User: Fold this.
Amino acid sequence: MFVPGLIERKRDGGALTPGEWRDLMKEYAAGRIPDYQISALLMASFLRGLSREESAALLDGMLASGGRLDFGDLGKPVIDKHSTGGVGDKVSLVLAPLVAACGVAVPMMSGRGLGHTGGTLDKLESIPGFRTGLSLAETRAQIQQIGCAMIGQTPEVAPVDKKLYALRDVTATVECIPLIAASIMSKKLAEGLTGLVLDVKLGSGAFITEEERSQELAETMIRLGEDRGCPTVALLTAMDRPLGRACGNALEAEEAIMSLRGEGPEDLHDVTIALGVEMLALAGEKDRARAKARLEDAIASGKAAEKFEQIIEAQGGNPAAVEDPALLPQASEVEVYYARAAGTILEVQPRPIGRAVVQMGGGRQKVEDVVDPTVGFVITARPGQQVHISEPLASIFAKDRAGIELARRALDDAIRIGDGHAAPLPLVAARVSAKGMETLG
Amino acid sequence: MFVPGLIERKRDGGALTPGEWRDLMKEYAAGRIPDYQISALLMASFLRGLSREESAALLDGMLASGGRLDFGDLGKPVIDKHSTGGVGDKVSLVLAPLVAACGVAVPMMSGRGLGHTGGTLDKLESIPGFRTGLSLAETRAQIQQIGCAMIGQTPEVAPVDKKLYALRDVTATVECIPLIAASIMSKKLAEGLTGLVLDVKLGSGAFITEEERSQELAETMIRLGEDRGCPTVALLTAMDRPLGRACGNALEAEEAIMSLRGEGPEDLHDVTIALGVEMLALAGEKDRARAKARLEDAIASGKAAEKFEQIIEAQGGNPAAVEDPALLPQASEVEVYYARAAGTILEVQPRPIGRAVVQMGGGRQKVEDVVDPTVGFVITARPGQQVHISEPLASIFAKDRAGIELARRALDDAIRIGDGHAAPLPLVAARVSAKGMETLG
Assistant:
């Protein structure tokens, strides 16, 4: 394989064959192609695009580089959900136990915080003792036993995706739909799923902020999944404001627990149920109203919360945190943030909030940073709400005064109060499947 | 400096500031930026282009990475010539001694064979004992003594260009005018020149085969030189057929010696004189007819050949080769190639010839290959010539029968005989200076 010739072809707008993409991934995984050739190829791919066939071949090459779970003998549907990431997005913590409580196997493989967004693993690890680093064998055993595991990407799964992702991160080749789609799907398809639901975020807090491109990303991932025998459906959901009220690891874990007990914020509940309905539908539930009723019942009956306790216990955490969220780590400084003006809340922008959580110590600025689980926000202000001056809009949780000040400035920046109307995106704007897009919001 | 942010800006069609380009080169030269980030930036630059200011800043950064010659105390003009490379292009071997014999200092820094083209260093080293690896200090001393040195790129000159060039070669980012121009000029301006003449090749045997792009390359290099106080002029010359008759290292050295003695082929002589006139003009000779007469006289009087003897002697070679070219290494197999048909010679394509020389052992297919100086061609067939069947068109010089056969196939491929008219490019098609382009041919 003459790699400069392949780079040249992509550079000039041509396509590589499926065999060439697969060989490239194989040789790169084996360390026989240097990073500098792959980064040039990634930049050429970013600027020239990849055809549908090329994305598929790239994905197959990535999948072939690692191990895969196989639940063929489990005798029940195996469904997961993936979110493209946002601020306050703790849906996975609610949805995995909830859907597992309805009898579906959920091998939920998640990531860490990235950029301005939080990560499910960091939120789970705010529960004292919770261990996310299970092997594929441990994951398999736990799913056979209790129907759900909530884990990080193991070294066995799509190892070449890890190498590629790290390289893309430092060579400005992240925001490229075919590369994003292949990366996500290489991890998800390795889970041996019988169905996958995608939560593709829309709006200023999403990684891809243009609506058409979000739709294109959803369609690309759906094609990749369907072509490999994994029925895939996407919901496009709002990320022009944080989801729920809590932003920050332990605060979000607490809100997720409240939601599992039926006491969480409405938007978080509604998005979780909408995604849950899709998961149950993929699991064979033909009647969507019945799917919704089963999910609501799992919450009301306490079965969903109980399933989360089982998961926490199986993964080394303290399950009592579900009964008593005060067992979660608590911030040393707490202050209320008040409205600086009267009027309508026009916007609660997610990015300044997400960035502030990272800067307060709740996320990583370097790979080796240790995350402080206690810091963050609980924001009660919602777009469209009328507020008086000095009305409480949020609580700030920080480790010191500097954190409080930083958070205040972030809220000043994020919450826009004025005259006129707020125009938030519909919470669940559209549903995309192999059959096309259906507007919902 | 946040490198991914710079790559992202270039990726999205923006420009980096001069300071950013200079810092990038400085940090890359120091090994503090990894190759994979630079290769992504090079690919983005290839596809998005560099502005005039960006090329200039890139060049300045490359120049700053290394040492420079300074001939300020020499009291005479210091002029060099650079060719963009072709097949049979042995002009440097004739021109450097010739112009030096006219009283101009010529610090000629050249390269090795690249792709289908030969390299001046390989041709010089076919002269027994000739050493091209002089340090800057040795070069300076030799120029003070005899007015000319013919050397390779020393490790002291633009070291970051060497790193960049090696990286571009394996990442399909070679054929990019701003990168080519900055690379060439970083080496040439390090020579401390008071003037530079560029020989930009046109036609199928050139690296850049489109005429407008050759002109763009010439203009880019001229701007870079002029802006840095080095008056620069370019001639656009024909490379739709080999230059002269000889192709191959020792064969070309021999032809260069013949040309220095006034016994070489006409096209080689004419291109050499045209470039020499430009060099003398840059050195202060106002009268172009007089410049030409001085060059012709240096040949006729034997001074040019004598200067070459001095250079060879100073650099450890056997100067007797100038009197007796039979002292150059000789091929073991020699055969004549005859016309396979009668008609007009429509084309003598340089690329098949250049590639055959490499494959016969006269160039490198891998960096570590040792070059066989003896192999190659002497092609007497010229475009436009009428030939009979079985008329001798060329001599083949090879190390074995396989080489002879390979060379025969290359000549079958390269020499097109038929009806109709040949339409070779004018030998010297145009002259480009800071004032614009002037068509000559």
The first helix of chain A runs from residue 3 to 11.
